[in-house]
Specification:
Elements (H helix, E strand, L loop, with lengths): L7 E8 L3 E12 L5 E9 L5 E12 L4 E6 L4 E2 L2 E10 L4 E2 L14 H5 L4 E8 L16 E4 L5 E4 L1
Antiparallel strand pairs: 1-7, 1-9, 2-5, 2-6, 2-8, 2-11, 3-4, 3-7, 9-10
Length: about 160
Amino acid sequence: MANGDGCAIAIPYFLGQSKAFDRIGVEITTAAASTNVRLGIYADNGSNSPGSRVIDAGTIDASTTGAKEVTMSTGTLAQGMYWLVAVPQGGSPTFRALNGSAYHVGGGSLATVVGSGGILAGIYTAAGAVPGALPATFPAVANYAAFPPVIALRAA
């Protein structure tokens, strides 16, 4: 899945029990020269959408392919809904992507959830909104994303 420069994509992650995490990562399948991917976590806003930033974990290099991760310290996160975020900065790399009809969190309508083209309701994008550090609040949602990137966490 290609993601445009500066376009934040947030995927839902339900944390079933309190836990701390020490790494976050993605797999770059097609590199983009002079590009980084900024990774982070947002809390849910109470309406099944990303809200306040929990952590800006920093960036990984997307100018080469492969699984990439960054070390972070979340502290202990409480049980609940969170949003994992990836933002290409400097180009448009391709990520290893989720495929299928999962993650229907926050779908605006049944038509959106079951619509054509593999749209995964609740996978939000904020087009062209994040050129640097992750903002304190997730930017205005521009669209739903089809086949969003796999964003992995490692428990501490």
